[in-house]
Amino acid sequence: MRAVTWQGIEKVSVQDVPDPILQQPTDAVIRVTSTAICGSDLHLYEVLGPFMTRGDVIGHEPMGIVEEVGSEVAHVQPGDRVVVPFTISCGSCTMCTQALPSQCETTQVTEYGSGAALLGYSKLYGQVPGGQAEYLRVPHADYGLMKVGSRLPDENYLFLSDILPTAWQAVVYAGVPTHRTLAVIGLGPVGQLSARIGRHLGARVLAIDPVPERREMAERHGIEVFDLAEDTVGEIRERTQGRGPDAVVDAVGMEAEGSPVAGLAQSLAGRLPDAVARPLMEHAGVDRLAALHTAIDLVRRGGTVSLSGVYGGAASPMPLLTMFDKQLQLRMGQCNVRTWTDDLPPLVEDPADPLGVGDLVTHRLSLEEAGVGYDIFQKKHDGCIKVVLDPTIAPAPTD
């Protein structure tokens, strides 16, 4: 089959790799019909190279049609249309039954002290082949696979794999709807959906992003938008009775702009030999913290900061004096996808499209064009906000 493979820092290649097969009686194999590029994939593309192996199949936002199931899989059968959550969880361990499947005790990657294994996401999370491919093996399929209807386009359902429940969890962790004003830092795909979910749940939403196309998209959904400038925090405070918003979602994470020293550390770590770079990533503070520091500064006293953006540095410095003095709450963590999936299908199937899932994808490319997709997504070229790869279509002709 054809699959997107990691080949080095800022280099992916679509190659022939072995077709997946059932390895356990709880497995299923699906034929992928759509698979998205996530902001977290850019961490593999740019930063987490020391934990990758050349040829790793990447990607963790797929959906498709079930082709084959193991003998212990009863929930789905060949022919079912399914979405694949990016976390690999058993559904029956203590963590899963406490609505924390991202901490699944069956699939935890204990070698690295990590939570549940993830599809297509480095040695840190199990090095399981990912979903930017024609076919995908799904472990623990009875719990993991989500059956969806056959009538609506893939893009109504695809984001249930990751970014929609990630955004939903971020807003719930932020305390909306109890908190009535919500700021969102970063209007990439998760930030866009976080802002729309906050508004859907009744909050006034203010959002910050330096990219005009991202601000324009958010404005279409009733979000108050701000450029990233020196006076932005002060302007938002003025619009919130001088206090700041009740809650802030940091939807940026470790690659925030405005952190030149940490940016240099990330670049160096990504290019050092693995034996040197891995300890650096595991023990040093290599996160760009500009977005997180902005969130802590912006939120009102007694407010909540919710982190949905991924951070990877083990010793990143935090402004604890400010956090303590402002009496802040911080909530964060890998998304517990299956915890939220009963809430979300009715919203994506609603003809009114209350979360605007029909207004998010800016580029739909063939699987063979994955390299182009990664490049424009990373560089924010051509108005790129969300890229979906389609293994079923031929690449566009070139001049």
Describe the fold and architecture.
There is one protein chain. The protein is α/β, with parallel strands linked by helices. The chain has two domains: 2-162 and 337-390, Quinone Oxidoreductase, Chain A, domain 1 (Alpha-Beta Complex); 164-332, Rossmann fold, CATH 3.40.50.720. It has 15 helices and 15 strands. It has helices spanning 39-46, 94-97, 141-144, 154-157, 163-173, 189-200, 212-219, 232-238, 260-271, 274-283, 290-298, 320-325, 337-340, 345-349, 370-379; strands at residues 2-8, 11-16, 28-37, 62-69, 81-83, 135-138, 146-147, 181-185, 204-208, 224-226, 247-250, 304-307, 329-332, 363-366, 387-390. The radius of gyration is 20 Å and the shape is globular. Residues 189-255 form the Alcohol dehydrogenase-like C-terminal domain. It comes from Brachybacterium sacelli.
